Amino acid sequence: xxxxxxxxxxxxxxxxxxxxxxxxxxxxxxxxxxxxxxxxxxxxxxxxxxxxxxxxxxxxxxxxxxxxxxxxxxxxxxxxxxxxxxxxxxxxxxxxxxxxxxxxxxxxxxxxxxxxxxxxxxxxxxxxxxxxxxxxxxxxxxxxxxxxxxxxxxxxxxxxxxxxxxxxxxxxxxxxxxxxxxxxxxxxxxxxxxxxxxxxxxxxxxxxxxxxxxxxxxxxxxxxxxxxxxxxxxxxxxxxxxxxxxxxxxxx
Amino acid sequence: xxxxxxxxxxxxxxxxxxxxxxxxxxxxxxxxxxxxxxxxxxxxxxxxxxxxxxxxxxxxxxxxxxxxxxxxxxxxxxxxxxxxxxxxxxxxxxxxxxxxxxxxxxxxxxxxxxxxxxxxxxxxxxxxxxxxxxxxxxxxxxxxxxxxxxxxxxxxxxxxxxxxxxxxxxxxxxxxxxxxxxxxxxxxxxxxxxxxxxxxxxxxxxxxxxxxxxxxxxxxx
Lengths: 252, 221
Fold this sequence. Notes:
The structure holds two protein chains of two kinds. Chain A is α/β, with parallel strands linked by helices. Chain A contains eleven helices and ten strands. Chain A has helices at about 45-50, 80-85, 100-105, 105-110, 120-130, 135-140, 150-165, 180-195, 205-215, 230-235, 240-245, and strands at about 5-15, 20-30, 35, 60-70, 70-75, 85-90, 170-175, 200-205, 215-220, 225-230. The radius of gyration of chain A is 18 Å and the shape is globular. The relative contact order of chain A is 0.18. The two termini of chain B are about 35 Å apart. Chain B has seven helices and no strands. Chain B is elongated and about 65 Å long. The longest helix of chain B is centred in the first third of the chain and has 33 residues, at about 5-35. By secondary structure, chain B is an all-alpha fold. Chain B has a single domain, classed as Up-down Bundle (Methane Monooxygenase Hydroxylase, Chain G, domain 1).
């Protein structure tokens, strides 16, 4: 496999006594899009939130095992540093409603108390909005509130906010489930663009989306990583019967 | 059963129905030849339209399933296989019609001696057996049975190869009924194609069930 940027080894996660992720071993290659799919409650979102240590923010939640970023223990790093390196985009677009489009993009710097000269901020805003194909649509309205944008534009703004921090990995938790098909298509196109600079891990319920956008797919079931393979292989000839039953809609 | 599974089942039933019609067409083409029954030959020619109608329906049904259900994995392989099998069966239907046309156009019954020396009747019987077994392999997802078709196709190829010399000798010895003798050679060629089409079908069955591509590979079993 190509050089792995994220690796988990015997990784498990709990909510109190409930084990949500069971002994997961996975290697995420650099500059690829990885889809994570599985039925509700299978542990896919929990696993995603473990990658940037969001999981531990839930009371009673904890994890065991190894999770590394470039072979460095994520759980030995400062959580803020982890989240600078591993950005996250959520299901519903969540721009800061009181901040302008401009300030939304550089919110990560402001919230972390990182002061930048105006020219640098301008550069980051333009670069990030361009990366998410939003610059041409909003360059004359940067002072308007982010919440004035359409749902699809808001989601791209959130991706721009994550990109602005120049992370190495971007996590997406069902990023298009609240979007219409055209906005979904725009975000999916972005994935192909973004992977030239970042590694993307996308949790999705939409199997066709997984098939369309990802290089590799991981299938989770009841907390276990059942199968992890090239997406083409997974959707034409999966190895595990549970994977086949799930992707063909015969799951019970 | 989900709506998707029902749709797949309906396509499978339609393919089996087409298969039975094609076997019946080939069988009747053989009977019309042996009995020199021109009415039966004309029946085969007229029923060819039904084979074509099956082909169009299966194509349309597959297209709808692709558009509406986005099949993957074994379902995707099944539908891809069905599209190709559909095409192969339609060609075999054309072959049956072509043979029937020779009978309809012949002025005399085919000479029994040349039928025996060329092994044409055996070719017919083998082709029908292969086609019937291919249908059973498809219905029951039986790849062991499907694999038997490869060696049986080679038997048809051998008979075809020997036919040229036998027919040439026959024509040299007897200048009567040259047209009918050439029809026999053409029928042998056509039945050899039935073997090839059946082999293609067997490959598709194995692709659908085992996800193995055997096309253009030698020495497979």
